[in-house]
UniProtKB/TrEMBL annotation:
NCBIfam families: hemC. InterPro entries: HemC, Porphobilin_deaminase_N, Porphobilinogen_deaminase_C, Porphobilinogen_deaminase_C_sf. Tetrapolymerization of the monopyrrole PBG into the hydroxymethylbilane pre-uroporphyrinogen in several discrete steps. Its EC number is 2.5.1.61. It comes from Streptomyces hesseae. This is Hydroxymethylbilane synthase. It catalyses: 4 porphobilinogen + H2O = hydroxymethylbilane + 4 NH4(+). SUPFAM superfamilies: Periplasmic binding protein-like II (SSF53850), Porphobilinogen deaminase (hydroxymethylbilane synthase), C-terminal domain (SSF54782). It comes from the Bacteria. Keywords: Porphyrin biosynthesis, Transferase. The gene is hemC.
Amino acid sequence: MKTTPDVRVGSRNSPMARWQTDWCVELLSKARPDTRFEITTMASHGDRYQGPLSRIGGKGAFVKALDRALLDGEVDVTVSCVKDLPSPHDRQPGVSIGAVLERGDVRDALVLPAGRPPLPLAELPRGARVGTSAPRRIAQLRQRHPYLEPVLVRGNADTRIARLDDGSRGLDALLVAYAGLHRLGQAHRATEILDPVLWLPASGAGMVVAEYRTGDTAIRDLLTAITHPATATALAAERATLATLHGNCTTAASVHATLTSTTITVDAAVFAPDGHTAVRTHTSGPLQQPEEVGRRAGEQLLRDGAAALLHALPHTP
């Protein structure tokens, strides 16, 4: 059997990123067994930097190196978690999403230091320090559990868990993505899995995408073969809502799309930084029009007062 030239796949070098890239390459290899795939890893400024993302260009700090390698022709495909992508209006020109992999668990989870007796979030003692890097989680924590202290903790998921366990940050708990725990083989560390109806998930939660240079039709066609249609539909709606809101890395917002055989529904919310105020919407429409439904959800939020909350968000938290 003749083997076609390699397809070069770029990945961040964190354990989570490598898991996601290996999964993507496994799917590609099954779809195209005649093609060799070569993984190239690279460091990201977002992984190395431990302060607020707003000071280094927002979520683009996670994918800047990948985008540069892609646009410079050093790789043909890059793989990222959707939550690490900038909002659509801030996305790097010349980079397109080619494959959307099947969505994982959208829920957040509570993790306690190793060896501690399991407790739910509501039973943590007053003043307990709960680590997270997500404005969405911080706002909801302040709204639902104002007696707890949110603490900004940056770094890859495995690094954050290690800091929790060694006590170096004085943390009593972490809030993390449950899908991430699964991907790291750490699902057993979750002492509580939070109800997504009450504790709203992130836009793109549990999603992984493969991107390519816009206009590269051969790679586009290759990636189309591994796209999960339902997840791609949900992603289109959620990203359309974010684009309408013009959110950024400091935006405390949730956008979550669910599908039936004929309908797509977007549940979305924007929170004030202190968690005391939130604007929510529940918007439905035809399954074939995810971008339109997502856009309408964003417009409804803005009409209901989300713009004031968005403007109140600090640019340098």
